[in-house]
């Protein structure tokens, strides 16, 4: 899952930026720069992209990189520093920084730099993500998260959820889902679909189970308006 964490002590100021990144298909979280809060946000593994808000935190890029190397050895994370012209002029070449953006700047420029970093390291960008509210399906890595928590799905459960989510709002009969997900040569009955839908809903939990909606006497559809 290609996640982004914004490290800032002024989260209100980064809300517009968060909205733009989410609209582009990236799961985004925020954290303060204080050690306990930052460690909690980084666990169990750091986000792939860390955006350090140099205008609101005293934490330097080198200090953040040292923390990552110490607490999460071997874990890959790319860092972008949002900074003023004066801060960049004092930048430590050994900071471990991957990129920086001089403020003021646009969300579009930041998004372009994020996509470039992800492409260089993972060959993945927002086009590989299906986002519906708190649900994020990463098609490149065959993984699903809901409310920032990983969802353990079997391959067929994943394929069924992914298919419905990519055709959100459209109703599919059980026969159509069998053909699309299991293939035309599958000889099992339509009850297979019902069983997999029940399992998906159970794993989504009570708060999100209605994302997969039953259309009486017809079949199922993905409803992200719940």
- Could you estimate the helical fraction of the residues in percent? 25-40%
The average pLDDT is 86
What Rg is obtained from the alpha carbons, in whole angstroms?
21 Å
Helix segment count? Answer: 8
CATH topology of the largest domain: Rossmann fold
- Strand numbers in spatial order across the main sheet: 2-1-3-4-5
Q: How many β-strand stretches?
A: 12
| CATH level 1 name of the largest domain | Alpha Beta
User: What is the H level of CATH, i.e. the homologous superfamily of the largest domain?
Assistant: Response regulator
Structure description:
α6 crosses α7 and α6 crosses α8. The chain has eight helices and twelve strands. The relative contact order is 0.11. The strands form three sheets. A five-stranded parallel β-sheet has the order 2-1-3-4-5, with helices on both faces. The longest helix has 15 residues. The chain folds into two domains: 124 residues, Response regulator (Rossmann fold, 3-Layer(aba) Sandwich), CATH 3.40.50; 71 residues, Winged helix-like DNA-binding domain superfamily/Winged helix DNA-binding domain (Arc Repressor Mutant, subunit A). The mean pLDDT is 86. The radius of gyration is 21 Å and the shape is elongated. The protein is of the alpha/beta class and 226 residues long.
């Amino acid at each position: 899952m290609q996640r982004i964490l914004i490290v800032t002590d002024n989260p209100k100021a980064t809300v517009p930026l968060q909205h733009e990144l989410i609209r582009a298909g990236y799961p985004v979280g925020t954290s303060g720069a204080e050690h306990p809060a930052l460690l909690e946000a980084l666990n169990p593994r750091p986000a792939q992209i860390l955006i350090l808000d140099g205008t609101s935190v005293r934490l330097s890029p080198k200090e953040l990189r040292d923390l990552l190397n110490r607490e999460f050895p071997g874990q890959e994370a790319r860092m972008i520093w949002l900074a003023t012209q004066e801060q960049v002029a004092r930048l430590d070449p050994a900071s471990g920084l991957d990129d920086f953006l001089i403020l003021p700047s646009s969300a579009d420029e930041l998004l372009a730099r994020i996509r470039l970093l992800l492409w260089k390291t993972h060959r993945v960008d927002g086009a590989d993500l299906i986002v519906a509210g708190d649900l994020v399906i990463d098609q490149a890595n065959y993984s699903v998260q809901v409310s920032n928590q990983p969802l353990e799905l079997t391959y067929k459960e994943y394929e069924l959820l992914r298919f419905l989510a990519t055709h959100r709002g459209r109703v599919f009969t059980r026969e159509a889902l069998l053909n699309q997900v299991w293939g035309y040569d599958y000889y099992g009955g339509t009850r297979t679909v019902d069983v997999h839908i029940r399992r998906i809903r159970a794993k989504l939990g009570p708060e999100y189970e209605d994302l997969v909606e039953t259309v009486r006497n017809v079949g199922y559809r993905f409803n992200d308006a719940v």
